[in-house]
Amino acid sequence: MQPSGAKDTQLRESNSQKVHPQPMEEAANQNPEAVEAMVSRIFTNISSLKSAYIQLQSAHTPYDPDKIQAADKLVISELKNLSELKHFYREHNPKPVCVSPQDSRLAVEIQEQQSLLKTYEVMVKKFQSEIQNKDSEILQLQQQIQEASQKRVKLEKNLKLRGLSAKESENAVDENGHFSMDLTPEFFRSAVESAYRAIHDFSKPLINMMKAAGWDLDAAANSVQPDIVYAKRAHKKYAFESHICQRMFSGFQNEFFSVKHDNLAVTTDSFYHQYLALREMDPLDVLGQSPDSLFGNFCRSKYLAVVHAKMEASFFGNLDQRNYVMAGGHPRTAFYQAFLKLAKSIWLLHRLAYSFDPPITVFQVKKGSPFSEVYMESVLQNFSVEENEEKPKVGLMVMPGFYIRGSVIQSQVYLTGVKVTE
């Protein structure tokens, strides 16, 4: 048996081993491979951190915000990895239960936390500086937007005065604010399409008023365009459109549109300026300011040519409006204003045609001419040729064609000898 003193000593040593973990040196001796792997990972992480920091420094010269942000994230990621290694080590190598405030490991940890705190303070200041810079940039951009909006408002006013719509401002004005719209075949083609729509739009109220006045539309269509075989009765509307077109385009090949003038010297630039001046204005307002201008005389002569006296008398029961026009006036009736929209579109097309150098020329297609896909386009989209006909023939021309810079804008024609498949 051991003495009681020896037993107490052995018990205390056993209890001491249960309370206090093994020192680092003993743990290292027990598992040297794990410690070696841990140290290797720490050195690798430090190397990666050093590389990330070098990238962060290089991103400042020259200054590249995107690279700085990417390098900054990389530095933070490596610091995070290093912190995780530290916590992994401490979890597997806990500190002794009884430690004093002067313990070296605790002092190192406090110093590390203070260093991290300083790092975070630097980062916070950096982010605050970036926020201030962004706020300053936002204010500058807001001022630029406000200035650009003010310039746009002024520009739109100038465009409106010159006859251009706001949608065309990007193509019409160059960087210096000068008007530089290109006169292209496509631009003129759009004007031709607008004129054709205007003829179609005016024919509708004209036909409706003829119906209301008790006109025989079949006889009227045969009167203006005789001996035409229509595939459908509804196609007789093209006879009236053709009648309107022939009257409106009469004299188009003349630079003054066969309108009386006082030997005015007209240049290409003035044609274009007249086009711009009238484009966005109400024709009745223009005539109110200059009733005896070239445009005013044009509207007056074309109205008398398109609307026959018998037709007008049947519409209104008198010739008061016609007499008013013949006397030099421009009535504000709904019917005359509908006609002015048509007159404006044809006048604009003429002004634009003579703005080109050389001027655009118009050509017409005679009745009975063989259909040519080069010079003609059928107003009937779906048709087939009848068996007894070798080639479709032109029944009537609805809209003339144009020669422009070596190319052709096709005339619109109604064909006979075809079968409608629609």
From TrEMBL:
Stretches the record annotates as Disordered: 1-31
UniProt entry tagged with the keyword Coiled coil: yes
Coiled-coil positions: 110-158
Name listed for the protein in its UniProt record: DUF641 domain-containing protein
InterPro entries given in the database record: DUF641_pln, GIL1-like, GIL1_IRKI_C
Residues in GIL1/IRKI C-terminal domain copies: 362-414
Pfam families recorded: DUF641, GIL1_IRKI_C
Species assigned in the record: Anisodus acutangulus
Domain DUF641: from-to ranges: 31-157
